[in-house]
Amino acid sequence: MELFRKRNRSSQTIAEEFVQKVENEARSNLIRVYAPITLLVGMTIFFSIYDSHFFSLKNILNILQQMAVPLILATGLSFVLLIGRIDLSVEGVMGFVGSFMALLILNDRNANDFGFWGVLIPIAIGIFYGLITGILHVKLRIASFIITFATGTIIKGIAILLYDSRAARVQEQWMTDWSMMSFLGIPLITWIAVAFFLVCSIILNYTAFGRAVYAIGDNEAAARASGINVERVTVKAFVISSTAAALAGFVALIRLKFGQASLGDDQMFPCITALVIGGASLSGGRGGTLQTIVGILIYMELLNFLTIIGVDANYKKALQGIIIIVAVALTLSRGRKTIAK
Amino acid sequence: MKKFLVLMLALAMMLSLFTAASAQDDKWYLGIMVHGLENEFWAQEANGAILFAESKENVEYQVMVTDGDDNKENQAIRDFIAKHGQRAFFITDVASTANSVNFAEICEEAGVYFTMLWQHAEGLEPKDFKHFVAHMSPDDFVSGYNTAKYLFDLIGGKGKVCALYGVQGEDSAANRYAGFQAALKDYPEIEMVDMQVASWSQDQAMNFTQTWLAAHDDIAAIWAANDTMGLGAIEALKLEGKNGKVFVNGVDGIAAAFDSVAAGDMACTVANNGYLLMGYGAAYAYEAAVNGKTFDRPVIKTNAPLITAENVAEYKAMFIDGQPEYNFNDLAFPVLSDYESFEELKNK
After folding, report:
1. What mean pLDDT comes out for the span A248-271?
2. Does B38 touch chain A (CB under 8 A)?
3. Cβ contacts from A onto B, under 8 A
4. Domain at B228, CATH number
5. I need a surface site. Which of A262, B45, B123, B244 has the fewest CB within 10 A?
């Protein structure tokens, strides 16, 4: 009797433990999804109270305009991150597309005036370059951060050689107009970014490809066993990422009108930081469209706010780093998958 | 383009081997060391040295690209010295600060004269080497000071200004900003609103400027530590139709900045003038090697003209669309004349 009761009690404990574990996991999952949003809302309210310039219409429009390029890049990168890879070539592709485009449309360096084709051709090359990168990655089985670093360096080098020491300034009138244009008060380039973001959201959330992306990120072996063509999905993810980079190059050129290959420099890490702040995992499987946009907004607002209140530039970088660590620590659940590979 | 150049250089080297064998040596051989040719300024430097070489009948030259790689540079100068012996002399935009020491030691050992531009290691001075003819560069402090002063005069000596800093930890960024701050002291009615580190980036400079414009209504001028950042600030101003009304400067004198000054968007920039640096640098090394000339003040701060709306057309024709014509016998020409006054300012 004594023995039986003991065994009974212990089995009860195991069952309870299991239930407890499931509940905990569900709770941490909830935290993971809602913590970034809560942080964003809290930040926005705090910043607005702290300095009235922050929530002024002009400043909001600034943030919207400034987030166009990061939003496009982060949307593309999120696919690659979801399958547990990384794409370091986006900066190179972006620089190439922007600087090559500046050489093909009306500019101060040569007599070219390809108009529409001048925009389309560089973007097409950029997208195709993602296909090559993806294929090299899956066929040669080289780790993504090595192969994409290499391909990114190559395409940036090509860009520099193409403009031969003097970058082109855009003289195309419509491009100047586009940089000023807005619809419903919101800058045109932000609409371009939002449109790309929405299309990618649909792809990620409502297609078989999107489900395959999550499946691979969660467990690549299991995904393969269940009949998913992992190679194909991986290549497609890289194509989406390079499409984003190419589009970002176009948008950056609209913004800056100066086709330097350095157009893409220092663009990627802020985006990856933003994605991680938003709740994406560097080892794949976690993240999504909501996390992407929330992460980007948190990051952009933070940068903007630090400038508005005039934080000393010498402390700013350090402060930025600390805030990022705190934000990531707050928003990440410390599950098995969140320890970066 | 680069490949083509390398090929041409290889050809030129082979040809020079033949000629060297036939004609007994009355020639001098100028080694032109540059980081690369993809950057407008580096191309200007190389062309300046070529201008000098072509002005002398007894000089042959070879352009060598280092890609900022120390080993590549050292290998290249060793090969060049091996081939031409003490008939070689160098003008270099040295691959890195650290390598300036190796460069000086290799040349000193071989008895080959050289002039160095821009960076050089702390304590590495021409006076300590027999063959280190001169060190030349425009003065970043002076560039920062002159551009800032020009902006402050434009806004009538009062109003709000912001500043865009280069990369933290770089000498040129720090010195240009020090020049800006020195000018600020001369204008007590100018209010310094904010300084941000935009890391030489057009994109970041544009973002900061947008934010400044949202936070302050009445910014009168934005000082930028280089042209690219100045152009970024101007793009932000254009969105609000304030280009040409809020004054912005640049430093370096890239082609896009010349155009921007001509269009009235940029108030001024400084032309670092690679032609002058390498052209006269080569001339100094030549004078030392061939005529045994020595220089009393071998650390030379060069004249870097302030480009404004008044003189932009003239300088653009000279630096961008064409090439300047220099009399390389007039060795005092590149020296910044009123340098002493700036030395005093720096120490203040």
Report:
1. 90
2. yes
3. 93
4. 3.40.50.2300
5. B123
